[in-house]
């Protein structure tokens, strides 16, 4: 590859089209400033571009106000009113313009300009329109993307934003107040252009015969491309929605001309995902398109017909890597389900790809959503496996009613998790069981249909927390109870002694630290408060201290 010569490259850059400045000016429609002065019915509005002035008569009943929308009756330019005397600063607006041009021998260059529109008040003390123009357009070029024939691409960003043109030539005649004629402005509708990057028209034509001719820009941006474009991100792609400018597109193309292959083969989903920045890891050394994509030749043909997503590309690669030989129907099913290669790998531990495809189609039926069915089936199998079912049993792997069996598994899994948690707590907090033996009598009390007692074991506390949906089953309370720093007590109805109702935490001093019912609420508050007061009165505080202290002495003895 030749050494890149900046000076030479810059010297080959062609002149801007003769109408470029005019084109830039037109883009500012909606962003002009119309200056007004005078009072009441004697107001005058001046357009800095066409320099037309309009005196407002009482018949128009329109009184310009600063910041309101304005229209120049003479040239039709739209913008906002500004008082001609109240500010010395000119109004300044900026836009960005890209332009694509041929350059040198079959080269193509994309150039980025900032256009600045400066409009001055005709009555400003600092500005004499005799010397200076009422408005000017400044064009500064700050980016260049060179695309050359031999696959060489260079991006140039000028840190100084070199100002190439300073004045709006052709508008240099004098501005004289006497020449003002009368017209009236009107409030304008909402159709202001949103300021975006603009693209000088004719880029597709300009690309012909250059190194950028086969960029396939047309297939993505249409025959009349805009500078900015929201890519329609394909389904089952990992990328989000991206705003891809022509600039980014051409730079990507110049860096990876294999994009051309993807577009030409109809693999636009992959091409767009690649442009959106998804790393697709192609085989650069591949001599054929299928080698390049790392799929089989047969699958490549299928892909060209079906325009797959990146997820499906991964499945096609998985197929080649593991010698799966998928049939067309399976490919269509997997593609539509949005399944990943890893998920396919999971499924085929239990069934062949063909069986999987048949199953998914059967569960989906005519009305179902293949994607939803795939997720349900995957989760179902995961749960079955986690619950240690026999995965060789076809009744388990192929449930007759998928939804029903899935929901059953959810319930079973939740129950299983609760049981696991209880088992684990029981193991870690064995001391709770020991504590119960000596403390049961100390804490027991019954009055008016309510009873209170200390927790028997860890799993009972866990279950209490689960059923009442509060946090007593967490490690904090289990540990405090096991270490006798406080005691967890249950208030229950004497006739339903197994049903959780109120949970109480009590200090070794007999102080009630907290009590809660379901979801951290305080049901039957007065009744419970009265009950707890009576309970505290009859508590044997000495026995309580002793019960709590036993543990403390024991630890001390161990420590010594
Ligand atoms: Zn005008």
> Which residue ranges are poorly predicted, with pLDDT under 50 across at least 5 consecutive positions?
159-195, 550-560
Radius of gyration, rounded?
Answer: 40 Å
Strand-residue proportion: 15-25%
User: Given the C-alpha coordinates, what overall shape results?
Assistant: flat
Beta-strand segment tally: 18
Helix content: 25-40%
**Bound compounds:** zinc ion
Measure the end-to-end span.
81 Å
Mean pLDDT level: 80
Class by alpha and beta content: alpha+beta
Number of H/I helices: 21
Task: Note the main sheet.
Answer: 6 strands, mixed
Element layout with pairings:
Elements: H1 6-11, H2 20-26, E1 32-37, E2 44-46, E3 53-55, E4 69-71, E5 78-83, E6 91-103, E7 107-119, E8 135-147, E9 153-157, E10 163-165, E11 197-199, H3 203-207, H4 217-221, E12 230-231, E13 242-243, H5 246-255, H6 259-264, H7 268-275, H8 289-293, H9 297-306, H10 310-322, H11 328-337, H12 341-347, H13 353-364, H14 370-386, H15 394-397, H16 402-428, H17 431-443, E14 445-447, E15 450-454, H18 458-468, H19 475-482, E16 487-493, E17 502-506, E18 512-516, H20 525-538, H21 541-559
Parallel strand pairs: 1-5, 6-11
Antiparallel strand pairs: 1-2, 2-3, 4-5, 6-7, 7-8, 8-9, 8-10, 12-13, 14-15, 15-16, 16-17, 17-18
The protein binds zinc ion.
Description:
- With 560 residues, the chain is an alpha+beta fold.
- Among the domains are: 281-428, no CATH class; 430-556.
- The chain is 39% helix and 18% strand.
- Strands 6, 7, 8, 9, 10 and 11 form a 6-stranded mixed beta sheet that branches.
- α13 packs across α14 (370-386) and α14 (370-386) packs parallel to α16.
- The radius of gyration is 40 Å and the shape is flat.
- Mean pLDDT is 80; it is low at 159-195 and 550-560.
- The site of zinc ion has 8 residues, from loops.
């Amino acid at each position: 590859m030749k050494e890149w010569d900046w000076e030479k490259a810059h010297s080959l850059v062609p002149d801007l089209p003769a109408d470029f400045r005019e084109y830039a000016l037109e883009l500012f429609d909606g962003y002009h400033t119309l200056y007004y002065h005078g009072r009441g019915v004697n107001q005058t509005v001046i357009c800095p571009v066409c320099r037309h002035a309009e005196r407002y008569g009482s018949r128009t009943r329109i009184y310009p106000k600063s910041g309101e929308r304005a229209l120049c009756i003479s040239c039709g330019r739209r913008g906002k009113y500004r008082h001609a005397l109240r500010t010395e600063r000119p109004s300044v607006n900026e836009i960005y313009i890209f332009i694509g041009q041929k350059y040198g021998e079959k080269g193509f260059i994309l150039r980025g300009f900032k256009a600045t529109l400066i409009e001055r008040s005709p009555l400003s003390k600092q500005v004499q329109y005799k010397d200076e123009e009422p408005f000017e357009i400044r064009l500064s070029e700050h980016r260049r993307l060179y695309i050359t024939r031999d696959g060489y691409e260079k991006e140039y960003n000028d840190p100084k934003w070199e100002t190439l043109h300073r004045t709006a030539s052709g508008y240099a005649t004098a501005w004289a107040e006497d020449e003002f004629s009368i017209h009236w402005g009107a409030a304008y509708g909402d159709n202001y252009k949103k300021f975006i990057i603009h693209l000088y028209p004719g880029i597709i034509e300009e690309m012909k015969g250059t190194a950028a001719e086969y960029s396939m820009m047309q297939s993505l941006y249409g025959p009349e491309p805009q500078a900015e474009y929201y890519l329609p991100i394909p389904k089952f792609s990992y990328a989000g929605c991206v705003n891809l400018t022509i600039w980014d597109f051409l730079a990507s193309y110049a860096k990876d001309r294999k994009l051309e292959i993807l577009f030409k083969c109809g693999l636009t989903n992959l091409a767009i995902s690649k442009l959106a920045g998804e790393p697709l890891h192609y085989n650069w050394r591949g001599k054929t398109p299928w080698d390049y994509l790392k799929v089989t030749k047969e699958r490549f043909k299928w892909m060209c017909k079906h325009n797959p997503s990146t997820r499906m590309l991964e499945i096609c690669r998985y197929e080649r890597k593991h010698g799966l030989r998928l049939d067309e129907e399976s490919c269509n099913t997997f593609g539509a389900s949005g399944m990943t290669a890893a998920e396919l790998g999971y499924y085929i531990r239990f069934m062949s790809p063909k069986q999987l495809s048949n199953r998914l189609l059967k569960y989906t039926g005519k009305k179902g959503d293949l994607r939803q069915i795939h997720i349900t089936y995957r989760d179902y199998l995961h749960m079955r496996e986690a619950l240690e079912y026999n995965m060789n049993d076809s009744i388990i792997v192929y449930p007759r009613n998928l939804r029903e069996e899935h929901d059953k598994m959810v319930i079973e899994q939740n129950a299983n998790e609760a049981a696991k948690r209880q088992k684990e707590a029981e193991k870690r907090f064995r001391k709770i069981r020991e504590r119960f033996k000596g403390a049961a009598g100390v804490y027991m009390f019954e009055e008016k249909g309510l009873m209170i007692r200390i927790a028997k074991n860890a799993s009972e506390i866990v279950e209490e927390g689960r059923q009442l949906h509060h946090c007593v089953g967490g490690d904090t309370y289990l540990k405090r109870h096991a270490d006798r720093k406080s005691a967890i007590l249950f208030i229950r109805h004497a006739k339903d002694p197994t049903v959780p109702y109120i949970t109480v935490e009590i200090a070794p001093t007999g102080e009630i630290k907290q009590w809660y019912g379901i979801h951290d609420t305080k049901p039957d508050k007065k009744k419970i408060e009265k009950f707890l007061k009576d309970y505290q009165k009859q508590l044997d505080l000495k026995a309580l201290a002793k019960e709590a202290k036993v543990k403390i002495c024991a630890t001390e003895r161990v420590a010594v």
